[in-house]
Specification:
Helices cover 41% and strands 22% of the residues. It is α/β, with parallel strands linked by helices. It has two domains: 117 residues, 3-Layer(aba) Sandwich (Rossmann fold), CATH 3.40.50.2300; 85 residues, Winged helix-like DNA-binding domain superfamily/Winged helix DNA-binding domain (Arc Repressor Mutant, subunit A, Orthogonal Bundle).
Length: 216
């Protein structure tokens, strides 16, 4: 799971990044709104962890703008603001939870994992049904099995169906990252499951939702 941590307190930012990574998460960090926008433009994330008081725009504005652009990534706010109006505003914008500073990082991890687990629903694509919790793939009702690397690529692409996934995000999933190895694995994945994966030059790859034309 990949998290974007938006926090301008560098000491807290670094300690949280280390703690989350030690628990198995991939963590990118941003110190202000501009950096957060840049990161979300270049990468796909499974979870956002946002501070509110930032040097440029507030964490409220960042999430509001991301939501307005169609980004539905689950988000927690971490903040020293505990007044009811701030908490209410966070939930109204679309945050999933609000955690008061200072907090126990272990509790934060438990809450994140709980939220991510509750969001795990069956994903579909053409005649494929995928269970992210068990990694089970059914194609036309029959089980399909993928190698570890191809399964990671498939998981990343289907979670972000119809969105461009950065080439760098996909390379991170390979044991020996290279553009050639990525192309080979994606080609095998396409052929195995009959996927429509397209390369968007200079940006990454997209698993396209293909609609069949019906003629009358």
């Amino acid at each position: 799971m990949k998290i974007l941590l938006l926090e301008d307190d560098i000491t807290l930012q670094q300690s949280l990044q280390l703690y989350l990574e030690a628990d198995g998460f991939l963590v990118d960090v941003a110190s202000n709104a501009d950096e957060a926008y840049e990161k979300t433009f270049e990468n796909s994330y499974d979870f956002y962890l946002f501070d509110i008081n930032l040097p440029d725009e507030s964490g409220f504005e960042v999430l509001k703008n991301l939501k307005n652009s169609g980004d539905e990534t689950p988000t927690f706010y971490i903040s020293a603001l505990v007044d009811i109006s701030s908490i209410s505003k966070g939930f109204e914008i679309g945050a999933e939870d609000y955690i008061k500073k200072p907090f126990d990082p272990e509790e934060l991890v438990v809450r994140i994992k709980s939220k991510l687990a509750s969001n795990q629903k069956l994903l579909t694509y053409k005649d494929i049904t995928y269970d992210p919790q068990t990694s089970q793939i059914l194609k036309d009702g029959k089980a399909e099995y993928l190698g570890n690397i191809q399964l990671k690529l498939f998981d990343k692409l289907i979670r972000n169906k119809s969105k461009v996934v950065s080439q760098y995000d996909l390379l991170d999933l390979l044991e020996q990252p290279s553009t050639n190895a990525l192309r080979v694995n994606l080609a095998k994945l396409k052929n195995k499951l009959n996927l429509t994966i397209k390369n968007i030059r200079t940006q990454g790859y997209i698993l396209e939702e293909v609609w069949e034309r019906v003629l009358f």
